[in-house]
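ugh ok so i messed up the first submission bc i forgot one of the chains. this is the corrected input, ALL of the components this time, i swear. 653 residues overall. if the numbers dont match what u have on ur side tell me asap before i send this to the collaborators (the ones from the other lab, u know who)
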Amino acid sequence: MTTGAETEGLRPGPEAGPPGLDTAAGGLLDQRSGVENPAGRGNPAGRGNPAGRVARNERIETKARQTPRGARELQVWAYGALGLAAIVIVWELYKLLAPADGVVIGGLRVLPRTTDLAMPHIWDMLARLFEPVTRAEGAAPLWAAVGAGALVTLGIAAVGWLVGLVVGVGLALVMLRWRLAEWGLLPWIILSQTVPLIAFAPIVRSWGSKIQIGGFEWADWMSVALIASYLAFFPIAIGALRGLQSPDVIHTELMRSYGIGWWRTLVKLRVPASVPYLLPALRLGAANAVIGAVVAEVSTGLQGGLGRILIQYAGQASGDPAKAWGPIFGAIVLGLVVAGSIALLGVFLKNYRRVEVNA
Amino acid sequence: MNQAQHGAPSQTTADAVTVTGVDKTFDTRSGQVHALQGINLTVKAGEFVSLIGPSGCGKSTLMRIIADLDQPTAGSVAVFGKSAGQARLDQDYGIAFQQAGLLPWRTVAANVGLPLELHGVGSAARAARVAELLSMVGLTEFADRYPDQLSGGMQQRVAIARSLAESPSLLLMDEPFGALDEMTRERMQTELVRICAETQAAVVFVTHSIPEAVYLSDRVVVMSARPGRIQEIVPMRLDGERTESLREDTRYFEMITAVREALHGGNPGGGIATGGLATGSVAASAPVRGAETR
Ligand SMILES: Nc1ncnc2c1ncn2[C@@H]1O[C@H](COP(=O)(O)OP(=O)(O)OP(=O)(O)O)[C@@H](O)[C@H]1O
Ligand SMILES: [Mg+2]
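and heres the new structure output, hopefully the right one now
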């Protein structure tokens, strides 16, 4: 009886946000991140199974639903490998077939040169990783130097991500608890991302250097972590808020009928329900933290991280073109490690993502 | 099996629900909606009462007010002699909605055990009670499944088991079988009758189906819309066993006719809509809905 559902729809749910803002934030988030809206939630018709399916069918149903899931994951990996192979092939084919000076139309070079200086062979880049960084005696191989830099950056990005997580979830909780806070805070949170803090990295660093509270002294890496957290907190705050607000009225009313308070409803209902929204937000936040850390390292000139190595080796590219690609590979691996960690988190939380499966 | 509560509800205990002069108006953008007006209703302990009426006549609203999920604009509600709010905090009632409303990340067993868990029942006692409830609704083998692995009817049975978890003396059910096919529905009705007989619970049952109301109830409350009022309370004289054979009994058909006539009488302008409703057709609620928006 669809009329019942319609009546439910008429009721302004207690957790419906301010209409304009909510969509604005949602739209922003969707564009930036593709944080998927787990379809089927809040839509009684779309949830569960069509009525009247008899129990007999269930065993088959269950299997039929699980197989595509495993296959889908395999497919993702296959697509990834295929894409990588395609890039390598296109790179080498272009290098082989295009003129050495690239393609120039009307004095404009629309396609790059194919010399070894501009486009080293993929295998040269890979081989370079295993050669020493410099010609000096006992120098470490390039991959070790890049790896050490990537670890430093990873550490800074992780700190930034954690700070972003705490701040983002904290803001989401405040906005969840007080409607007024949502009205007051959400526009500022969205506006905050229009301030390109990353461009002011050197200024942030110089502010930081003035901070000294008791025995605590602001280190340069903290400025980088701060910028990383600034980029990370936004998707986390928005994703957490949407996730915490996602339970249907029927669920919140059930909790009310059990006579439990706001905190226990939060722990038993809202937090578990937020997982499908939170995971993509965490992934996006982590990616943002890595980008923020690398770029902030570049612009503040912080020693030791991947950003610095990137600039340094690029400066040496005229003499050693393949070397500049080392830190680029390092950055790619760093991104994969971060994305993989979040994916692992998703595996541990897989029962909380069942809505996604259901959708 | 004890079927006594269908015939003669015990007079010694306090009434399960007493609704006195309840009005409910909603303030909406397009003005006030008069959902309920002058509702007086008493449900005795162990009694099964159905609410029936055209769509939008306030059945769900009345049930939500009894459950303290909504407040009446005027009048008062007592549940076992206490205020509705106190009864909610004391867990005097169990509730089941039209949708199952299971938590998707919990197994069937964990969903059924949720109210017990929230109210501090130890895990051993909880497991025993959950096993008992699951066998009652015939889902023992599905204890470790997740809701998305169940059919709609099975999910609904889990929700019913959950509403029974704390052996409430009052059950509030809002079209719990609305999403089920006719066969599952009849089986669930039979199960509900059996469960009520076992637990001696009073039931307030919202439905759109006249046969369902007649089959299950001691009394059927017929409501009319705009404003929602109690049109008539039809006592069912079907004392005796609620068995499958009752569905073919002449008294059963007489009672169906009685309820249908009460529904017709209550809505002079809306003959088509109530006529449709009387046959149990879902489509019939559309014209009623349409009228509402005018
Ligand atoms: N939160 C609300 N705000 C405004 N109007 C409401 C609200 N809840 C219910 N109503 C209105 O109150 C009236 C009664 O609604 P109710 O849900 O109780 O009807 P019902 O009898 O349960 O209908 P159905 O059989 O379709 O479920 C309807 O006109 C509905 O539009
Ligand atoms: Mg209703």
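quick check: Residues A 4, 7; B 59-60, 174 surround magnesium ion (ligand 2) (CB under 6 Å). that seems consistent at least. Chain A has three domains: 2-67, 73-119, 142-353.
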